Amino acid sequence: MNIGDTVSRYRIESLLGGGGMGIVYLAEDLSLGRKVALKFLPGDFARSPSAIERFRPEFEAHIAKAMQSRVALPTPVASGTLKPRAAADV
Length: 90
What we know:
By secondary structure, the chain is of the alpha+beta class. It has helices at residues 43-46, 49-69; strands at residues 6-7, 10-19, 22-29, 34-40, 86-89.
């Protein structure tokens, strides 16, 4: 992933951080014109059903937070060979 790349409807703007659970980028939602954070899971992690299940509570927490603050819900992202990844409003 490089700065300036487009994944689905998101353009990558900068790296926000990363760790064992993935890498987070600041991106622009090109459809809505707003900033979002995109989290990409490591390759081995993204291919493991049990690992994805461990990620699910984090994804659901973002959904719950979005519903409370009435902002756009996180959106699964898929492009080419990439597996779905979560996007949450910043």
